[in-house]
């Protein structure tokens, strides 16, 4: 039956193997870029602006994802520091990727002269779309799955097609597992639709689409993380662990059981704790910024470059107009000079 497992290698060119994981992540980045470029045009932002952001943001996200993972699993690397750089062996974390990408974004937007909140809002749908697609890389690699389940649960309860059910028969233990990649991908799909609808609402203020992304993604991640068996964890206070378990307990009403968490690793899943903190922080920021009057700018308002004081795209248009006028002046001058020469010759 293991022969039914998908081959993680898409194709090979000589000794170089191209993995499905890389293709899927590349597709996720491309879709995210196209979404941002399309929305950015409405505000006068050029495609090159987002292309440069992608070229800087992807490496930053990879570095952040790796450092985040290594920081919480240092015991695995302290005796072999060079293994930290072997990212192809696995070991990245999405929250670390977000931290790396956001640090890059803060610097990049400031250099370009734009408000972080305005551009981050445009990129929010791109983030959740990228995560929605990227999770299928975990599917191909048979990783980031949940606890064991019966085959009948996958086929008869979830009504999943054979190609997904077969891939959920994990080679390492010969058991079927929760397709947590699918749960999160579908959750993110709904989230993407919500964000696309929200950004056309006149009541939305700058920064609030990004906060909505964090709220939606973190709620889903909290409950899905509880199903997984590979969570990063730490040893925390027993009351905090009980609180996390209590918040997750509604899942049991739907017949789900928490994935195994090795007590030697910890009693609190890090991603669950961060998810809770992000939801709380996002709600506080939305309420706080509106209460203090800081959230005056609406999402649909023009994006102003604080270096020039002009709306995005205006400066480029003015440069083109000036160049066109200069070109016409040069042609006129050339024509006048030619006419003078003719007069002298005559």
Automatic annotation (TrEMBL):
Assigned keywords, A-Z: Cell membrane, Lipoprotein, Membrane, Transferase, Transmembrane, Transmembrane helix
Locations listed in the record: Cell membrane
Transmembrane segments: 20-37, 49-68, 88-109, 204-224, 268-288
Name of the molecule in the record: Phosphatidylglycerol--prolipoprotein diacylglyceryl transferase
GO molecular function terms listed in the Swiss-Prot or TrEMBL record: phosphatidylglycerol-prolipoprotein diacylglyceryl transferase activity
The encoding gene: lgt
Family affiliation: Belongs to the Lgt family.
Binding site for a 1,2-diacyl-sn-glycero-3-phospho-(1'-sn-glycerol): 135
Region entry Disordered, spans: 315-346
Biological process according to GO: lipoprotein biosynthetic process
UniProt topology in membrane: Multi-pass membrane protein
Top-level taxon of origin: Bacteria
The organism's taxonomic lineage, starting at the top: Bacteria, Bacillati, Bacillota, Bacilli, Bacillales
Composition bias type Basic and acidic residues, residue spans: 316-346
Pathway(s) served: Protein modification; lipoprotein biosynthesis (diacylglyceryl transfer)
EC numbers, comma separated: 2.5.1.145
Protein's job: Catalyzes the transfer of the diacylglyceryl group from phosphatidylglycerol to the sulfhydryl group of the N-terminal cysteine of a prolipoprotein, the first step in the formation of mature lipoproteins.
GO cellular component: plasma membrane
């Amino acid at each position: 039956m293991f022969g039914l497992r998908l081959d993680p290698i898409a194709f090979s060119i000589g000794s170089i193997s191209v993995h499905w994981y890389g293709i899927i992540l590349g597709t996720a980045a491309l879709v995210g870029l196209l979404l941002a470029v399309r929305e950015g045009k409405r505000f006068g932002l050029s495609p090159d602006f987002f292309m440069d952001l992608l070229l800087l943001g992807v490496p930053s996200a990879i570095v952040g994802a790796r450092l985040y993972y290594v920081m919480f699993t240092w015991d695995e690397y302290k005796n072999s520091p060079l293994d930290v750089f072997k990212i192809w062996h696995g070991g990245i974390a999405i929250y670390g990727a977000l931290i790396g990408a956001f640090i890059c974004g803060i610097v990049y937007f400031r250099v370009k002269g734009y408000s972080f909140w305005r551009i981050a809002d445009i990129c929010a749908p791109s983030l959740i779309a990228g995560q929605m697609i990227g999770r299928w890389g975990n599917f191909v690699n048979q990783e980031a799955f949940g606890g064991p389940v019966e085959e009948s649960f996958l086929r008869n309860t979830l009504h999943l097609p054979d190609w997904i059910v077969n891939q959920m028969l994990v080679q390492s233990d010969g058991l079927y597992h929760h397709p947590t990649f699918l749960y999160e991908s579908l959750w993110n799909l709904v989230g993407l639709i919500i964000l696309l609808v929200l950004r056309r609402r006149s009541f939305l203020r700058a920064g609030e689409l990004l906060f909505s992304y964090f709220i939606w993604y973190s709620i889903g991640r909290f409950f899905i993380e509880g199903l997984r068996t590979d969570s990063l964890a730490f040893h925390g206070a027993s009351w905090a662990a009980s609180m996390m378990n209590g918040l997750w307990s509604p899942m049991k009403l739907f017949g789900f059981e928490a994935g195994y968490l090795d007590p030697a690793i910890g009693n609190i899943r890090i991603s669950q704790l961060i998810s809770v903190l992000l939801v709380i922080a996002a709600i506080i920021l939305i309420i706080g910024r509106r209460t203090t009057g800081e959230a005056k700018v609406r999402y649909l308002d023009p994006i102003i470059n604080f270096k020039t004081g002009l709306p995005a795209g205006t400066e480029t248009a003015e440069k083109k107009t000036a160049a066109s006028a200069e070109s016409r002046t040069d042609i006129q001058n050339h024509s006048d000079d030619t006419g003078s020469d003719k007069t002298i010759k005559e």
